[in-house]
Write a structure and sequence with these properties.
Largest sheet: 7 strands, mixed
Strand order of the largest sheet: 9-8-7-6-10-11-12
Number of domains: 2
Bound molecules: glutamic acid
Helix content: 40-55%
Strand content: 15-25%
CATH superfamily of the largest domain: NAD(P)-binding Rossmann-like Domain
Number of strands: 12
Length: 424
């Protein structure tokens, strides 16, 4: 590969550039005025903190963390916190802006934010993770709060991480503040249905897309990349809805069975053996090749930037349901459109998670908790309506689903900014 090609791919893979490209296209198409464009294109606030942590062996290490609040125009900033060795400020920026657009697409009263800490949870003990989480919380605490900024889990963070954040915040406030984070354990103010919510949302919108094409779940083949929270929940719920899950890909490789994988058995196999590979009755496959299998629904549920200008032409799925944030680069969008792949963009497809986070926040603030049926019913209503809004907007304006979702979101956020006016 030439140096120029490498640099171009590097640029293409920069999530913030990917977010900006879509923003510019949607803003131009909406005819957004220049001033509004300037306001909405930049994050409102970016915080970088250096977090000293004592490791188990006694050494002191300083980790860098970020919290970006992209917009608070429609409500408190909302969005997850990820722990990963390759977190960058540009990535957190992009993810924060996607939260703004995502909350606006599903029309819940939040802005957008995101956090990230550069660390490798795979090599850290539980105690080290607790100390890094608590100190990071203490460093960003002035910017958090149920009315300010409400974090949630993301890559490599979970219910336990949220419990530590809630506790640290509450200790400083001298009162228990459950609504400061969502995605908490059930007995600490978490919501029923929250762990499944993102996967459930993906299932709901995939079913809507099938319906649109007159396809039946029982004859639909699904390929899922990633078997973490989103991928495994989506796999379980899609299998329950009748889909045939023919392939699951993880970092170490993929497993393929054209007749459909038994998801519960695969989860058990991974638990027992430490890997999805060598699953009885399935073929092992190269992880990258999984993306190019002939299938009805392809569901990337892992990282950003997996479908790029270099491989998008090889995607043979009818429907691309983006469970992950930013799995497709901006350049790849055009290639998928040329090949008539029906894209359910991330800011719609994976919005089930933040939608149930909203329900959790509402329940915490009321101190009144809903049963699972109520949570799932309300989630379904929001996902079905949002899918319909995006797809009909795309058809009406002759744009692809992603740009339609951005246009819908930008319009809602711009309207809020206009009504509020500029404080000087
Ligand atoms: N991290 C999830 C996302 O990217 C959930 C965010 C939330 O619930 O606030 O949508």
């Amino acid at each position: 590969m030439s140096l120029e090609a490498t640099t171009n791919l590097e640029q293409e893979l920069n999530p913030w550039l990917a977010a900006e490209t879509r923003f510019d296209l949607a803003a131009a198409r909406l005819g957004l005025d220049d001033g509004m464009r300037k306001i909405l294109s930049k994050p409102a606030r970016e915080l970088t903190v250096n977090i000293p942590v004592q490791l188990d062996d006694g050494r002191l290490q300083v980790f860098t963390g970020y919290r970006v609040q992209h917009s608070i125009a429609r409500g408190p900033a909302k969005g997850g916190i990820r722990f990963a060795p390759d977190v960058t400020l540009d990535e957190v920026r992009a993810l924060a802006s996607w939260m703004t657009w995502k909350c606006a697409v599903v029309n819940i009263p939040f802005g957008g934010g995101k956090g990230g800490v550069i660390c490798d949870p795979a090599v850290m003990s539980e105690g080290e993770l607790e100390r890094i989480t608590r100190r990071y919380t203490a460093e960003i605490m002035d910017f958090l709060g149920p009315e300010r900024d409400v974090p949630a889990p993301d890559m490599n963070t979970n219910e336990q991480t949220m419990a530590w954040i809630m506790d640290t915040y509450s200790m400083h406030k001298r009162t228990t503040v459950t609504a400061v984070v969502t995605g908490k354990p059930l007995n600490l103010g978490g919501s029923r249905g929250r762990p499944e919510a993102t996967g459930r949302g993906c299932t709901i919108v995939s079913l809507q897309a099938l319906k649109k094409f007159g396809l039946d779940p029982a004859s639909s083949r699904v390929v899922i990349q990633g078997f973490g929270n989103v991928g495994s929940m989506a796999a379980r719920l899609m299998a329950r809805a009748g889909f045939k899950i023919v392939c699951i890909a993880e970092v170490e490789g993929a497993v393929y069975n054209p007749h459909g994988l038994d998801i519960a058995a695969l989860l058990k196999h991974r638990k027992d053996s430490g890997s999805i590979l060598d699953f009885p009755g399935a073929e092992n496959m190269d992880a990258h090749e999984a993306l190019f299998l002939d299938c009805d629904v392809l569901l990337p549920a892992a990282k950003e930037g997996v479908i790029t200008s270099e491989n998008a032409a090889k995607v043979r799925a009818k429907i691309l349901c983006e469970g992950a944030n930013g799995p497709t680069t901006a350049v790849a969008d055009d290639i998928l459109a040329d090949n008539n792949v029906f894209v359910i963009p991330d800011i719609l497809a994976n919005a089930g998670g933040v939608t149930v986070s909203y329900f959790e926040w509402v329940q915490d603030r009321q101190g009144f908790f809903w049963n699972e049926q109520l949570v799932n019913g309300r989630l379904e209503e929001i996902m079905v309506n949002s899918f319909r809004d995006v797809v009909s907007y795309a058809e009406k304006h002759g744009v692809n689903n992603r740009i339609a979702a951005y246009m819908l979101a930008l319009d809602r956020v711009a309207f809020a900014v206009k009504l509020r006016g500029i404080y000087a």
